[in-house]
Amino acid sequence: MDRLEIFKSIATRAGKGELTFPANVNATLKLQEALDDPDCHIDAAAKMVTAEPVLSARTVAIANSAAYNRSGDEITSVRVAVNRLGFRTLKAMVAAVIVRQLGSGISDPVLRAKAARLWEHTAHVAALAQVLAKKVSRIDAETAMFAAIVHEVGGFYLLSQAESYPGLLDDNTEDWIEYGEKLIGRGVLRQLGVPDQVLQAVEGMWHGGNTTPPRTLGDTLLLANDLAPVISPLHPPESANARQVAAMIDFAVGSGGTLHSVLDESAEEIESLAGALLV
């Protein structure tokens, strides 16, 4: 079976919901379902988060980041962190754990390096999307961060399956862009129960067509992706050139500000949030 046929085969199974997740992903999906219950109390949520060491560490780190810790008072309690962040941000943290768990079973060192690089890219896009949503496009910042966290989930799923197909990801090809992002990614996002608003925004990013200044969730996600200092390892090398072009984009924001001034003023916030996601 050649590379294109393999991509198509994985995409077909993903589209039918025939996905194979590691056991730890299935456990975290149950936590996600529990948080979706409107009757879930903060104490119950904190107890569930505490039971997941990685999620606990990331929740406290995010709560102490410049994006959420306005007072500068550092906290160490998971319950206080959950209270500070709120359930919507907590759900984004759960999504982050699920995305990273998809690559947890990879043993091949080359694929593991790609997964680590892909998460580094994702963390930067998420931090940028949160700030851009809040200060530029004026849309819901938590939704923007959540969308950014899951925007490469198809890539993580493909990496988790690639060991069964030696050489599948030796080269960056257009086959991945066509069948990975669009078909595999859509199947995984639906299986994870991602809301339609977020799914449509991610699909809009796959199709490209940057609108500046950004006004919608899709516009915001695309700009954050273009501005991210770390390029996805699953994209062709020329993506680095697109990053350089995006870095030169500037436009007016509000009264007297520009995109560049917003990014400069928010540099610490972006770096802090991205760093917390990488914990």
From TrEMBL:
InterPro entries: HDOD (IPR013976), RNase_Y/CdgJ (IPR052340). Residues 21-208 form the HDOD domain. Gene3D superfamilies: Hypothetical protein af1432. This is HDOD domain-containing protein. It comes from Janthinobacterium fluminis.
